[in-house]
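Record now logged underneath.
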Amino acid sequence: MCNILTFKVLEENPVACRSYATGIYFFIMMYTGSNILPVSRLLHLTHLKQNTYTAQQGVSIWQRSVLGPLLPEAMVAYIENHGVEKFSEIFLGEFDTPEAIWSGGMRRYLIERIALHLCDFSPRLLSNTRALYEYCAIPAVKYENLENELFCNIYYLRNLTDETR
């Protein structure tokens, strides 16, 4: 219900372009449940509309998206190219395809990196549920299993050229 309300508030709100400053992307990406569809809808609606330092024209979707520092380039492209339902499937599953390499381990790693980034704020929030988050950009999350992967346009080339699969 909360995700639906948040979606409705951000859908037509002129200040939605600054929602990143609330830390909303950090907090919703830490969600460990399986009902990810409402979260995916919110991400899809807002991730390219944020007034961040990366929101420039003429650069890749990954660089323009507020999700760029959090997710691999393929995952940002996936939500745009395939929609929220398919993104939700990928985000919850284990995939090694030309368009997406993602696993439960990568999701856990993302949550760990965000938790580390928020480690100063989390205790304050526990002691005061009305504590205000002061936005601080997160360093880009580097996924070890993607280090040797070559991603071009919307494909991981190793998987695209794999003739045995």
About this structure: The beta strands are 95-96, 101-102, 151-152, 155-156.
